Task: inverse folding
């Protein structure tokens, strides 16, 4: 029985989806004005762990991650670089998708963009205005926080305390300092879309409400994001959505802990700001994922050189056993069957993950398994094929399938002989290009093969290749 800590209820609750064996899940994606940092990566990877484990448990998951492609930060970057906001958003949307793929984050069911949902956004704002919960001003449309009695139920904040702690209000058009923008009228030179309140663009919060309701329904199962989004972003999503639809918005809210660098909050002023892309040249995606899996998703995580190196070392133990089992699988060994209770390990793994996705405990189960299998292989150098299949399958489904921390594809090539034939075909094509003096295409073939780990060696006798 899966239990999830629900931020809304401040307790663990049994997970019961709206539809049997189906899960609707939304996670806040990036504002695409720059490369995302390693703290964002923790949120994306933890959401991936949750999604993968749900699928491992037999659920069909509809997973939506939005892209905020119009925002103040995007406009500021565009102005600073003298280009359009659209070109900034396009560049960093592409970079985001490249980087999460590198981190082995499974592709979302859909990556909706704010600019593609202006109709849904405007329609939701119209409902709020018609109900008297939002009001138009000379500079846009604002949500009246005092009109929503449940405001603060996610974050635990109340409007009285927020009013007392509010800064001096600089926008006299707002009825209250707490009211937030649903629609912003365009300033000269800014991108805009037509609306009943004038040309402009949406506020940040309304985008997620409109997109999640569009693709998952007015009530859906799970909404995830970093702890920094609880207030005001997720609080405002609830206020907007529930006021517009009259229905509960999200049933289970999950929030991920902060990531620090060497015990300090990551910031550009401290010089410790690290993008995920910065990390790729030094650390493997599998090591980063392994490090994140060793800490419960709600707890803060300290990213240090020592912690990532330790993760890489621990990961290698798993990888080594997996590769050894892969070799034994290919050899089709047929010796004795060591005594090992696979069902006990499967249950222990599921029990850990069913307890609010307790990945550190689940990783402990995996390493107990690694130790016992290694001991069995010392006693039985040529174990039965049945044993090898079960051990290999368990690691592949858990470490590989749930946590995505194994390098599987390169080690489990389906047909090495076919690979060599295809490489040979590429070499023949390259030779023909050189004879035709099309050296640009010949060099392109060499460079692309090198990216795949295939190094060409030219000599007077022809071209050979070596796999790195």
Result:
């Amino acid at each position: 029985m899966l239990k999830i800590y629900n931020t809304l209820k401040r307790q663990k609750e049994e997970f019961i989806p709206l539809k049997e064996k189906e899960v609707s899940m939304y996670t806040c994606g990036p504002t695409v004005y720059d490369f995302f940092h390693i703290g964002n990566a923790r949120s994306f990877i933890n959401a991936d762990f949750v999604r993968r484990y749900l699928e491992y448990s037999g659920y069909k998951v509809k997973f939506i991650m939005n892209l905020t492609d119009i925002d103040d930060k995007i406009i500021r970057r565009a102005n600073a670089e003298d280009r359009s906001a659209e070109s900034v958003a396009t560049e960093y949307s592409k970079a985001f998708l490249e980087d999460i793929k590198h981190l082995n984050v499974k592709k979302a069911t859909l990556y909706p963009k704010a600019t593609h949902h202006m109709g849904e956004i405007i329609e939701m704002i119209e409902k709020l205005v018609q109900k008297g919960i939002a009001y138009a001003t000379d500079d846009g449309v604002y949500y009246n926080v005092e009109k929503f009695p449940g405001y603060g139920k996610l974050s635990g904040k109340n409007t009285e305390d927020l009013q007392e702690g509010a800064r001096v209000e600089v926008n006299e058009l707002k009825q209250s300092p707490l009211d937030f923008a649903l629609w912003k009228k365009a300033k000269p030179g800014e991108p805009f879309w037509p609306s009943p309140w004038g040309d402009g663009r949406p506020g940040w919060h309304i985008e997620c409400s409109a997109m999640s309701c569009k693709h998952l329904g007015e009530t859906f199962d799970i909404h995830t994001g970093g702890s920094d989004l609880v207030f005001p972003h997720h609080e405002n999503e609830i206020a907007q959505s529930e006021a517009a639809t009259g229905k509960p918005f999200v049933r289970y809210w999950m929030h991920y802990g902060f990531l620090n660098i060497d015990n300090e909050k990551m910031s550009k002023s401290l010089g410790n700001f690290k993008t995920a892309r910065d990390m790729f040249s030094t650390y493997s995606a599998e090591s980063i994922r392994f490090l994140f899996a060793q800490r419960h998703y709600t707890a803060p995580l300290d990213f240090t050189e020592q912690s990532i190196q330790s993760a890489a070392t621990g990961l290698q133990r798993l990888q080594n056993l997996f590769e050894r089992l892969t070799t034994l699988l290919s050899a089709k060994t047929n010796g004795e069957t060591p005594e090992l209770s696979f069902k006990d390990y499967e249950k222990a793994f599921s029990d850990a993950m069913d307890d609010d996705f307790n990945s550190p405990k689940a990783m402990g189960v995996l390493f107990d398994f690694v130790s016992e299998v290694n001991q069995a292989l010392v006693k039985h150098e040529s174990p039965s094929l049945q044993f090898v299949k079960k051990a290999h399958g368990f690691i592949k489904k858990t470490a590989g399938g749930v946590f995505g921390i194994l390098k599987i594809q390169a080690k489990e090539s389906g047909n090495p002989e076919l690979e060599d034939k295809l490489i040979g075909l590429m070499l023949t094509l390259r030779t023909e290009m050189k004879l035709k003096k099309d050296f640009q295409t010949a060099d392109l073939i060499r460079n692309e093969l090198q990216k795949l780990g295939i190094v060409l060696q030219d000599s007077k006798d022809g071209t050979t290749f070596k796999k790195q």
In short: Residues 23 and 61 are 5 Å apart (CA to CA).
